Amino acid sequence: DIMNAQRAVKLTPADAPGGFAEVTLANGAVLKGRSVILSTGARWRNVGVPGEQEYKNKGGAYCPHCDGPLFKGKRVAVIGSGPAGLTAAYYLARLGHGLVVYERDAQPGGTLRAGIPAFRLPRDVIEADLERIRSAGVEIRTSVAVNSVDGLLSGGCDAVVLACGAPRGLKMGIEGEDSPGVFDCLSFLRR
To answer: Would the pTM count as exceeding 0.90?
Structure first.
């Protein structure tokens, strides 16, 4: 069930293996289940790479749709090859930008590959999408950790899109969320 506008305030782990964990809501309701998955969603966040603050809105972009047309025909670097980075790269390439995607992992795809099991998202589907993106003129460099936005910009890039994804689940800040058997959504998917 989806419950809109409900806030969890406490998570009580099960007393014994196979027992019921309890999630207490702000309105006093208590939900019980043998499994609890914390799915808090994503939010914009600073990634802490040198030059990030100095170049935000001056060539360092979060949104390819908002900032993309400003850099038509320019060299653009995309940091991260998850859904956001690949989408940004594809559409920016279609606008006529020269694109390089930098991915720290050995294979591109981010959460598509690392967080969604192959029986839910077959790997050949990911590979077909990657081929379409590459055929649009996007170069994808894997096993490359970008440590400085400034280094990319001073190295010839006109713009940088930060699409580093969500490598860790978010905490809800409630009692019991660090208990054994309680997983954030991304940790659960990677199990």
So the answer is: no
* Contact between residue 154 and residue 119 where contact means Cβ atoms under 8 Å apart: no
Q: Tell me the pLDDT tens digit for each residue of 50-60.
A: 555 665 555 44
DSSP conformation class of 27: T
The tens digit of pLDDT for each residue in 71-122 reads 567 888 999 999 989 998 998 888 777 889 999 999 999 888 888 889 989 9
Distant-in-sequence, close-in-space partners of 5: CB < 8 Å, separation ≥ 6: none
How many other CB atoms are found less than 10 A from the CB of residue 111?
18
Nearest residue to 186 via CA among 174, 159, 168, 173 = 168
Measured between alpha carbons, how far is 182 from 8 in angstroms, rounded to an integer? 14
CA separation, residue 35 to residues 11, 112, 156 (Å): 12, 23, 50
The H-assigned helical ranges of 64-122 are: 64-67, 83-94, 111-114
Q: Up-side HSE of residue 185: CA atoms within 13 Å toward CB?
A: 10
For 49-62, give the DSSP string.
-TTHHHHBTTTEES
Residue 42 has pLDDT above 50, yes or no: no
